[in-house]
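debug: dumping io for the single-chain case to check the tokenizer round-trip. Nothing else runs in this session.
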Amino acid sequence: MSRFFNTTGPVVAANHYCIPPLDRLDLGDVLELVRTERYFVLHAPRQTGKTSILLALRDLLNSGAQGGYRCVYVNVEVGQAGREDPGRAMRAILGQLATRTRLTLGDELAGGVWFDILDRFGPDGAFQEVLTRLAQADAKPLVLLVDEIDALVGDTLLSVLRQLRAGYDMRPTGFPQSVVLCGVRDVRDYRIRSSAEKTVIAGGSAFNVKARSLRLGDFSGDDVAALLEQHTAETGQAFEPGALHAMWKQTSGQPWLVNALADEACFRGGKPRDRRPIGENDVLEAQERIILRRETHLDQLADKLQEGRVRRVVAPLLSGGDERDFSARDIEYVRDLGLVARDPPLRIANPIYAEVVPRELTAAAQEGLVQETEWYVDARGNLDLVKLLAAFQAFFREHSEHWVARFDYREAGPQLLLQAFLQRVVNGGGRIEREYGLGRGRTDLLVVWPRDGRSATPDAERRPAARFVIECKILHKGLERTIRDGLEQTAAYMDRCAADAGHLVIFDRRDGAWEDKVFHRRESVGAADVHVWGM
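debug: decoded output
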């Protein structure tokens, strides 16, 4: 069977193009933690390769190459359905552990005996007793890899953590020598609401035997190139330099995005598998299809936008303002989700996520708008952006108060409403690239029409796509100063994007008559000609 790009579940080297999982860790550091009987945490956002690494580590430790261990992997997500019923949850967890022990270590009797232990010791003691017996069953030290630990909640999570801590002093002969907890977040950041104790307990106090926290990073640029080269080596289908650059730029190395884009560009989209080289437009078209399908990975990410601690961080990023209504814990949480980059400045993690966030927040607004693409496209297939922004200006004057109030992210309401209006039209054949971030004082939009350089009218010639810059600013320091600063920023953005035209949109959110806010004029900045819109 030919290998392919994997977007579901752990990698299997025989089936998938992949970066060897253990190459993504400092393996020497990990093995030293195991050898010195440490308990530690491995965490990273979803679908970054954590489970693949745990399974590879299990196989390595069981191979005997590292001195002889007995290593068991268990996914405790099965206990999530039990939620606040620790008895039900623990039965599911022990059942999963029994299955994994039988398959990995060959213990055929574990399940029945362990359920008897659950009846005798109860949910707050059974896990510890099972691990003690498992450690005593063989002279080789036991290593336990616990995946999806943060899928557990409340008293169930608290019980598991406390039982692991309670057996810590009995290692290595009476308890696992080393335990790895794996999830999206570091255990220190857990805030566990215990119904039984009617209080919130910090994960760090419930599991204070943790020696280290390791965070799995994204692919490097070399990793992305190596992954794509595997496909080229096996099929002969090359990636043009522009495609390689786009794969790295649009994903910033997020593993699921890299695999999904490559799979879509090479195998999907209704195109024949003629093994022609993959170009930059193929990657961008693949990105658009993935976003429009609301793939599970992106849908789960978008769902997090409704959480208050996520909104507090993302809202000022969208508006470009300096508001800082978020805490350090809010930032750490959003970073753990993979939604924002780990290195400064504070920003959305990659251009695909930066595209998904405003689209998701404006999805309902787009459906409610009556704008049609053909209203703003001439006979030769050119987009009339002046006509489009004039229509938005009239719409904003009449409807903005109603529409902005409907957004959960009201701080960024004007910018989001403009993006919804543009997206509704541009969906007919173009694309929007977005740049925004904390303290920038603006939101930068680049409209590319048509998205692939082919005319929107079938009989017109193929020609380079037109590129329009739209700079959005909130009026803060007086109109003329805001315009002056905005013109400089717009001209610089036009130069960087090699844009054909530039537009500066000033949102005046002060109370006052619309006649004083609404205007349209043209200004020159060096060689750049910029339309200025007041709203």
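debug: round-trip ok. The mean pLDDT is 92.
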